[in-house]
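Running this now, will post back.
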Amino acid sequence: MKAQIVLLPGDGVGPEVTGQARAVLEAVAKRSGHEFGFETQLIGGIAIDETGDPLPAATLSACKNANAVLLGAVGGPKWDDPNAKTRPEKGLLAIRKGLGLYANLRPVRTYPELIDASPLKAERIQGCDLLMLRELTGGLYFGKQYREQTDRGLRVVDTLEYTDVEIERIVRLAFTLARGRRKKLTSIDKANVLESSRVWRQVTTKVAADFPDITLEHQLVDSCAMRLVTAPNSFDVMVTENMFGDILSDEAAVLTGSLGMLPSASLGEGTLGLYEPIHGSAPDIAGRGIANPIGTILSAAMLLRHSLGLEKEAASIERAVEAALASGARTADLGGGDKAISTSGMGEAVISRLA
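Update: finished.
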């Protein structure tokens, strides 16, 4: 198989972790007889520095013409001025919108070898395996925003906007994915307060009629946040709107013991997808070669599965990660201590265990 993959290393540790994910993909291609072409483009803070735009037109064009996109991370203290005309994060919002990516998939799975790395009790997280879907193109992040000076002071407004079409398409995807798992879907909203959430619940209930084999439950976001850390094994597939999903998916990272472990996929109607670890640019450790690349490597596995249809190859990466962890491979964030291995060391540990 031939495929073109665009790499968006971005800022901070982004180039380091995407470099290891690329090496894993190249190793998979060599072992399986595939041909992957790679093209590197700018996004985020480095794109602002070099072009003045967090998502240059050349980057978006290259991504649209690729089979898949692998992203590292964006942002950092250099671009944190809240009054700046443009910020690195705008590049992320723009590329999701530009590629029509409306569903962010974040699998959360605990590894037996890393149970002690989580601050939660082992009996609560043992065997945890859930999939969270976050809507990406609506909600507060894309609603109208403005500020105005009034006689009572500064007034700011953010609007939370959704259409029933936007809600239905991600909910339908969530039901479909639940059908391939344990057939349980939790829809998360704030229907006791927000009109948008009441419509979300209404649309979800309507779509459920097409999936009689799936058990649907509705959960308010505040109680869900509590349940996520007290009874994570009670969830299978979770679906929610943009901001709720942003917050809850980061909260779920505590189950694995490190943000560096979690991958994600952003998907639309076709096979083109954007894949990235959920962690940020970690500027405090950038350039030191100690960042955990597993989240990015597992994102590469999702790329093979969802955009290229290479299930066998995707599974081989996931098994290699498991084997590397089982052998004792640990980066600093996983409690490696004096025996912690480097970013490249973890990449090599995974590659050496590919089937």
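The chain is about 40% helix and 20% strand. More later if anyone needs it.
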